């Protein structure tokens, strides 16, 4: 992957991460880029093989063919929804983009910043759930943390509730 752009998109398969993925596809991703989806799953449930095996370092980079395979994703405790898979397959086909997924387990704020450095990413696009000031102060905002602590350019895409 040396010398090629590695565009990261933080995904949890929610409406706000789907909006961030669509925005990245329309505005950032160019022919020949590597699109790397970064997903952070909650800690726990380490009984299954892959989560136990890759818990500390995150999964290996998973290619699109395996992301589209429900049996493979089940091993990682994930179930990507059809609309996201459609976006990814269309992007790979039309722009000749290499799509990869990296799964981490733990605190999304820390693990997304870790992904930026370890993959490494050229830039990151992340969705924003639109929490109010009080909820954001209590719960903390993942996107705000990543903007302030990430070591690459970070774009936050707000959910406008039209999805």
Explain what the structure shows.
- The protein has 163 residues and is α/β, with parallel strands linked by helices.
- It has eight helices and six strands, in the order E-H-E-H-E-H-H-H-E-H-E-H-H-E.
- Strands 3-4-2-1-5-6 form a six-stranded mixed β-sheet, sandwiched between helices.
- Helix 6 (108-118) runs parallel beside helix 8 (142-149).
Condensed summary:
By secondary structure, this protein is of the alpha/beta class. The protein has 8 helices and 6 strands; from the N terminus they run βαβαβαααβαβααβ. A 6-stranded mixed β-sheet has the order 3-4-2-1-5-6, with helices on both faces.
Key traits:
8 helices; alpha/beta; 6-stranded mixed β-sheet; 163 residues; globular
Strand and helix layout:
Layout: E1 6-10, H1 15-27, E2 34-41, H2 49-54, E3 62-63, H3 64-67, H4 70-75, H5 82-95, E4 98-105, H6 108-118, E5 123-128, H7 133-139, H8 142-149, E6 154-158
Parallel strand pairs: 1-2, 1-5, 2-4, 5-6
Antiparallel strand pairs: 3-4
- How far apart the termini lie comes to 33 Å
Number of beta strands: 6
- What low-confidence regions span 5 or more consecutive residues with pLDDT below 50? none
Within the largest sheet, what's the order of strands? Answer: 3-4-2-1-5-6
Shape: globular
């Amino acid at each position: 992957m040396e010398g090629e752009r590695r565009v990261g998109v933080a995904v949890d398969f929610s409406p706000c991460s789907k909006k961030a993925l669509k925005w990245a596809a329309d505005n950032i991703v160019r022919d020949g880029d590597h699109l790397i989806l970064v997903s952070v799953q909650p800690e726990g449930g380490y009984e299954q093989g892959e989560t136990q095996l890759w818990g500390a370092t995150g999964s290996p980079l998973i290619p699109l063919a395996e992301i589209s395979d429900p049996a493979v994703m089940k091993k990682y405790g994930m179930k990507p929804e059809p609309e996201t898979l459609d976006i990814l397959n269309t992007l790979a086909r039309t722009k000749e983009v290499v799509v990869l997924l990296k799964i981490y387990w733990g605190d999304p704020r820390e693990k997304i910043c870790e992904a930026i450095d370890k993959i490494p990413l050229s830039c990151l696009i992340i969705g924003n759930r639109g929490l109010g000031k009080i909820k954001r102060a209590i719960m903390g905002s993942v996107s705000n943390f990543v903007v302030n602590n990430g070591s690459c350019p970070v774009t936050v895409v707000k959910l406008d509730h039209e999805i």
